[in-house]
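Lab notebook, bench 4. Still working through the backlog of constructs that have no structural model yet. Next entry is a single chain of 284 residues. Request: give me the structure tokens for it.
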Amino acid sequence: MKIASIDIGTNAIKSKIFKTTPTSIEFIEGMRSPIRLGSEVFNEGKLSQKKLDQVISTIKSYESIFQKNKIDRYEIVATSAFRDTSNSEDARRYVETAINHPLRVISGLEEAQLIRFHPKSNTGKNKIFVDLGGGSTEFFLRDSTGIEIRSFQLGAVRNMLSKDKKEEWIRLEKWLETIKPKKKLIGIGGNIRSFLQANDKKELSVKELNKKIKEFSRLSTQEKIFKYKFSPDRADVIDHALHIFKFISEHLMVETITSTRWGVSDSIGVKLFHEIYSNKINIS
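Model written out:
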């Protein structure tokens, strides 16, 4: 059976298709549409009908691909932009009615909790997962006392538009002080993954990270697009994402930082997989 997921994010809408059996789940195909909902939400306070119609059109294009793949089991979630827009409930209903499929707006903490579906989320107490999106940053860590999750309203698009608040930075700093040190940071999201790929690295020490970030910041948006083949919606926000990663790494006294291709759409896919096959499977 093939299943799918759609993640309506702040910077882009993403979808993933998986092939499943009662004992396995395998990623097949991914799609990404750069519809920056955060620009309207953080600047205007709400999502317009025009922008919501773009969301609907994108979802319908994904659904047509699902139909070709004979996929009828899929879940749609929305994150920071839909959480923060002043017309959140109306926007959700408008999209649901148009696509005739449930859309779930998840909280920041639920977004953080979803990281538990990552295959390596239960190994090692000296590492921390950091999911840095367009509008928020989520944390997941596991220690001897169990799982700890956090969500902060700091993100690449939000910060680029200068809509981040000093109080949130202080809240983040105080919490990081309570959990430091951490040996390894695993970054989730396209910005840290693109940055490491641009430097032809799978992992960087924090010293190397800071050096590379400084070099990177000297390049203009157009230079990043030309030199690294970044999409425009990646090139203009990546410095802001890297600033957040730098802040977190330094306060946690992290030794190394790496990335994973995992994201909300993967977690939603695995969650749906569990629901379909109940307790008959184990993921390793």
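Notes after review: The two ends are 20 Å apart (CA to CA). Residues 2-108+264-277 form a domain with the Nucleotidyltransferase; domain 5 fold (CATH 3.30.420.40). Flag for follow-up if needed.
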